[in-house]
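Notes from the 1:1 (GR / supervisor)

We went over the backlog. Supervisor wanted to see one worked example end to end before approving the batch request, so GR pasted a single chain during the call. The sequence is below; no edits were made to it. Supervisor asked that the structure be written out right there so they could see what the output format looks like.
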Amino acid sequence: MIYVGIDDTDSLESRGTGRLARTIATELTNKYEIFGVTRHQLFVHPDIPFTSHNSCAVIHAQAPPTAMEEIFATAKRLMIEDFVDGSDPGLAITSSEHITPAAVAFGQDAKSMIVAQERALNVAHNCGIHVEGLGGTNGGIIGAIAGIGLASIRNDGRFLLKGKNRELSGLRSVQEIFGAGIDQILTLQGESVIEGKIRILKNATPSFIHGKAVLFVEKNGDSIVALKRA
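Structure output shown during the call:
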């Protein structure tokens, strides 16, 4: 697996890290199979510049390591084309075999504390992660590297893109949801939902748990409603 970490540290004028990551993933599908795009929540603190939620995104590409140079070039081109003054984008890439516990620890720390660019660059250097800042302060390299560490454990964040999940809205049958790329449907109490219909208010954004896309729902009277998890 190749992981492409993106943090646009978007400004109010930009379209946002998640949408940019989906655009890049769509471009990459012309040549490579995309497992999904995940969103990972990072630490929210007044000393950390962000527009709304301080999250990063990771594209999971099922491609050989020899494809990394081309994938990186594609992502970089689209990010530069999308650059808006005031943003501080960062881009990182590596393959699964290069991800070490230090990269995972960096990602986990970035969820709960302020981490510096210097540490991010040291982690990237020591763990074989290729990273570039693409404008402004280059602060997005922190989220790009952290995202890769978090995505690699396959147990953090939620899917911005998984199969056809973004086409799911309104009242949908469980079988439609499974067919769109969702692996499991659970209530917060742990009950498995395998039949019936579920109301999806906008689009299905399943959580990334144990390598699976898990859609959480809650029962509301006679209805079952999909939940959006962080």
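Supervisor's comment: The first helix runs from residue 17 to 28.
Batch request approved.
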